[in-house]
Specification:
The protein has 98 residues and is mainly beta. The protein has no helices and seven strands. The radius of gyration is 12 Å and the shape is globular.
Length: 98
């Protein structure tokens, strides 16, 4: 995942480059240290939406997320779910969201 995340009020723009290209790859916003299934908001990389599941994946894209909560420490995670169901992840910490 690219290191630069743009934060505008409660909106985050997250660019992803050179992912594996699985249809179910997604970007999620989490409280720091939360489990991978405890996202606050998320979207698929392939269509920048939470539904439907894309038919094809993409390796590069941009996801726009809206912070659902107060200021605090969050993690933006790229989660790759390959056809066998295994997850891979990368972390970027967003220290302040207002």
């Amino acid at each position: 995942m690219a290191a630069t995340i743009t934060i505008n009020n409660f909106s985050l723009t997250v660019p992803v480059k050179d992912g594996p290209g699985n249809p179910r790859d997604f970007v999620g916003l989490y409280r720091t240290g939360a489990a991978n299934n405890a996202w606050l908001t998320w979207k698929y990389l392939a269509n920048n939406n939470a539904a439907p599941v894309p038919k094809q994946g993409v390796k590069t894209g941009t996801v726009s997320l809206v912070s659902p909560g107060p200021s605090g420490s969050y993690e933006v995670r790229f989660i790759s779910i390959n056809p066998s169901g295994d997850e891979g992840r990368r972390y970027v910490v967003v220290d302040y969201i207002r």
